[in-house]
Amino acid sequence: MIHVFQYHDDYYVYDTGSGSLHVADERTAKYLGGEPVCLTDEELAEIAALKAEGLLDAPETDARPIKREEIKALCLHICHDCNLRCKYCFADEGAYHAAREMMSFETAKAAIDFLLEKSGKRKVLEVDFFGGEPLMNFDVVKRTVYYAKEEAAKRGKRFLFTTTTNGLLLDDETIRFLNEEMENVVLSLDGRKEVHDEVRKTVNGKGSFDAVIEKIKKFVRARGDKHYYVRGTFTAKNLDFSKDVLFLADQGFDSLSVEPVVTEIPDLEIKEEHLPVIEQEYDALCDAYIEREKEGKGFNFFHFNVDLEGGPCLEKRVSACGAGNEYFSVVPSGDIYPCHQFAGDPKWKMGNVFEGTLDPAIRGKFANSCLFTREKCKDCFAKFICSGGCSANNYHFNGDIEKPYEITCAMMKKRVECAMRVLAARKSKEI
Amino acid sequence: MIKTIAKPQEKKITGCGECRSTCQSACKTSCTVGNQSCERITREQKIDGQK
Known about the structure:
Strand content of chain B: 5-15%
Number of helices of chain A: 14
Order of helices and strands of chain A: EEEHHEEEHEHEHEHHEHEHEHEEEHHHH
Number of strands of chain B: 1
Shape of chain A: globular
Helix content of chain B: 10-25%
Oligomer: heterodimer
Structural class of chain A: alpha/beta
Largest sheet of chain A: 10 strands, mixed
Strand order of the largest sheet of chain A: 12-11-10-9-8-7-4-13-14-15
Strand content of chain A: 15-25%
Structural class of chain B: alpha+beta
Largest sheet of chain B: none
């Protein structure tokens, strides 16, 4: 499959089968896009050469995911409570539609034991401390990290830890610990003060921007060259979210991710009618992104990274995120769910870390789900980059993990095109 | 005119399972495999670079 797209006077040709990206002149691009253009013999020879090299119109893989029993990652819901009350929170403002509670060390320890036991020959395991707000249960986070490291060392394994935090409880002690122990830290900040304060409220109903901004800046200054992301959410109320991304970059944050909200709250939900504006915003952001990089003021925007040269293998590309099969969420009771977005839904409870079991039917459903079981993905140019979308989003919006949610598909395709523009700009020495 | 900007590396490594879980990175709603690099290629390039 060949995907041709244009931005201003530039034409891009992406070959889905080979994963190759080309730039072309208007005539060649239109010809490859199926328009009736008469090319010269020389132009046709260029195309034939690329086809012969397997870089154009290449056959697409039908490789299925490799069946594995091993588990590689857990999301630990270390705290089902939060010190903020964000309007759009999918997790019911931290409580996950149940009583507010903390994960005990005993449960966290059992989860680590469960992961180690089920990890087979895997050497590198991943644990994400998630909430609610994980730092509200900081003592258990610390004890769990130290326990996991000790147990992993005995088995010749190691852990990569991640924490997602709203930043409110960052202080010298938490900053030092997170910087020492976490391979990645995700800090929630939505952008401009008025945008952030509109949705990210304290328990008293006040905006939280002023309470977190300096703490997050302090954290990032102390982070050095270790991974972090300042991660925002945009809603229907700030469809001009490119301004928020650039605002965050102007605050000195150089690793950013701003995501579309996942909610059905009427005034916040992203709807189909918003898509044209959102697509324009991604283009505007992409222009600014390339311009800033040219000026030596570049930053990393998560979605504008697409590694066409050293990206994941085909097996990974068709397997999607691994939720429900090699990656699970564990809630404070020890119950296991396919991922954090299924947490608390009894239909998706898969087991409990104290029992060490996983429901084979639910696991089988996720293990068998892949790019090729998602009918709508068949004709999508971005399928080997997207790998079929988020199962949880598919389920929550379309009632089936196999039915991609069209609105996120549209945004995904636009972001992939932007990422390709960035790549082309870099490769063309334009930057 | 058509010019190749990027193509996958010759080295095909499939299914080693070293890669990170997709949803563990920057976001928890729309992470994709395409935003990741192959851990193994990255590691090997790092080692090559140190030689």
